[in-house]
Write a structure and sequence with these properties.
single chain, 17 helices
Length: about 475
């Protein structure tokens, strides 16, 4: 493939995406360590009690504020301090809703003793959204990583200290509270100077602008949660098999982890695209998928080995994982379109894409879960993104050919792995280099990928903190 020069704004998007991606890695790694340490210190029973309370908080905060994070990034990038203050005002109202919802949910599942800390977790989580997301909006990507890192360390330390001192299930919930609290404090210290110089003036129009954009993003963000957390709950409700429910959850987490490669670039693209009036979305999508494809090829070729490496009981989820991974190209395209439409503030188009995906999930997940188990939920995931794909790709001119080529490559690897029943290591050994060659000849040149690597290394070694 002919080499392309990487534009300056694309370089800055890649640099910002590196910090956002590292933040995602920190959150995932610290989350795994947190639950592992909690299990060792307070036991499985207390983990079960606490996880129910935490789940009620997560559901409540999502129901109250889904869509706010994207709206904050866009509005702060466009308007600066005014939008930050407006989003903080809106979050204050939504946090009260989250507090009440969490209390109701906690009581409904019998976690009355933890209802107050669970409600506080929901409240603080919603209040933290303007603080943390504003860092991306201001282009302060390294500061975003620092805030996430500070929150993650606080979560681990406070959870462990309280568990050792005998707080049991409460230790887990208070550890969770420490994350948004410390991340918010760190974020505020980073943006304080920008806020102080920008003034505290805000109008009802500013609040209304954040609210309308947040509402338009609500179906998209809520459906993303439905694809992960709530799909697992729906499956557990209709099927009720603990091992299969856990297998579905782990498969979802693997899928989400790979999706953050392109997702991190697209989040940075929204900030930079809005601040500078440029269009980095198609390039971010292309580069993100090019970087993710070798990982996608590995999981598609050897899903059973990937799951066995985590736990031997997960092996029967290989087909479900394969189906989930096949949705990643469409998912990335939908995400790119949503970010581009947010930059343009096309409220109606954002809502249409989100509603299309949400409608398919709500209508198909219960039925397919009953019929086909975890494979059924995975099929609902795939169909939801495929149905939203044609709507999304209309807003990404020039990307259709690239997306089709990549998806056909992914599909071919999945079909070969599924049909020939060969040794998965052998299939992976062939699929990974083959996918890399196709990416370098059809999607992104080798020199481009080398340049991306140089940008990433330079970002980390020189510590670039922001992109104005």
């Amino acid at each position: 493939m002919e080499a392309r020069a990487v534009e300056k704004y694309v370089e800055d998007t890649i640099a910002g995406g590196v910090w956002i991606f590292l933040g995602s890695v920190v959150v995932s790694a610290s989350g795994f360590m947190f639950w592992l340490i909690a299990t060792l210190l307070v036991g499985v029973e207390n983990v079960g009690i606490a996880s129910a309370a935490v789940s009620s908080s997560v559901i409540a905060s999502t129901m109250a504020s889904a869509g706010l994070n994207i709206a904050v990034v866009r509005e702060v990038a466009a308007k600066g301090t005014r939008a930050f203050i407006a989003s903080a005002v809106l979050a204050s109202v939504l946090s009260i809703v989250a507090f009440a919802l969490s209390a109701i949910l906690a009581f409904s599942i019998g976690s009355s003793e933890l209802s107050f800390p669970a409600s506080m977790l929901a409240l603080i989580t919603v209040l933290s959204v303007p603080m943390i997301s504003s860092l991306i909006g201001f282009g302060m990507f390294k500061e975003y990583f620092k805030a996430v890192l500070a929150g993650s360390i606080a979560k681990l330390c406070i959870g462990a200290i309280l568990a050792i001192t005998g707080f049991k299930a409460q230790a887990i919930v208070y550890g969770y509270i420490a994350y948004p609290l410390l991340a918010s404090i760190t974020a505020f210290l980073s943006i304080y100077r920008s806020i102080a110089t920008g003034g505290l003036h805000v109008t009802t129009d500013d609040v209304r602008s954040v609210a309308s954009l947040s509402l338009s993003n609500y179906p998209f963000v809520f459906s993303a949660q439905l694809l992960t957390m709530l799909s697992v709950y729906i499956f557990a409700y209709f099927v009720g098999e603990a091992v299969l429910t856990g297998t579905l959850y782990i498969s979802m987490m693997i899928t989400i982890a790979i999706s953050t490669v392109s997702g991190s670039l697209l989040s940075a693209a929204l900030s930079i695209g809005t601040r500078r009036g440029v269009e980095p979305f198609a390039e971010s999508l292309r580069i993100g998928l090019a970087l993710a494809t070798p990982l996608i090829a590995l999981v598609l070729a050897a899903p059973r080995i990937v799951l066995l490496a985590i736990n031997t009981e997960l092996a029967e989820g290989a087909d479900a994982l394969r189906i989930l991974i096949l949705s990643l190209t469409a998912l990335a395209a939908v995400s790119a379109a949503i970010m581009k439409l947010n930059r343009e503030k096309s409220i109606g188009s954002i809502a249409v894409i989100g509603l299309a995906r949400l409608t398919v999930l709500v209508s198909l997940t219960p039925m397919l879960a009953k019929l086909y188990g975890i494979e059924g939920v995975s099929i609902a995931f795939l169909l939801a993104n495929l149905i939203a794909f044609p709507i999304a790709v209309k807003h990404l001119p020039g990307s259709l050919s690239m997306l089709v080529k990549l998806w056909l490559l992914h599909l071919a690897i999945a079909l070969v792995s599924y049909t020939i029943h060969a040794n998965e290591l052998l299939v992976a050994a062939l699929a990974i280099p083959a996918s890399f060659i196709i990416v370098c000849t059809q999607i992104a040149s080798l020199s481009e990928l080398k340049q991306v690597l140089k940008i990433a290394i330079s970002t980390l070694t020189h510590g670039s903190s922001s992109s104005q």
